Amino acid sequence: MSTDQGPLFSTNDTLRMLAESAAPSETRSDNENAANAHLDDDEVILDMSDREKANEMLMAKELKNLQFENPGTNQVLAEYGSIGTSRRKRAVRQKNEQRTERKDPYHDEKGKLVVNGERFTLCDCLRAACSGCHWPCPRCGSRRCGPVCQVNRTFAYQEISDPYANVHHENPFINDH
């Protein structure tokens, strides 16, 4: 199974041939001049034109191989390929969210109420002296959580009122009223 692809040269051979073709004819080897001495002028011209075409093709091929190929964003994305899982993406996003301080009241990762950067422990019944009057939270086990767990909760109750039991409590740490 032979395919006719023309002469195959190594890189060193190609570079040597390029250097020889760029050199003036006086510096060519005596063996080459002696080999061409027995040919008549027409054969030498044809031989040189074929050689020049081959050299041009080799030079074009080598120049193409030397060209820079921009990898684009593939290289950047390969470096950050470790952030492929949703868990890691979420961790990176949460880290970025923590850098921007929120102004509205919310609860942190431990369930503490955060108002203007200060952290407070407060039951959802909004009484400051209460140490927890609700059933234990199924998510975190705290008795301070009402119907929604306080861990990473994005809101805070401003007031609790029950007109039938005559109960009205306001959040002592939020001064919107």
From TrEMBL:
It comes from the Eukaryota. InterPro entries: ARF7EP_C (IPR029264). Residues 61-161 form the ARF7 effector protein C-terminal domain. Residues 19-40, 80-106 are annotated as: Disordered. Residues 94-106 have a biased composition (Basic and acidic residues). Pfam families: ARF7EP_C. This is ARF7 effector protein C-terminal domain-containing protein. It comes from Mesorhabditis belari.
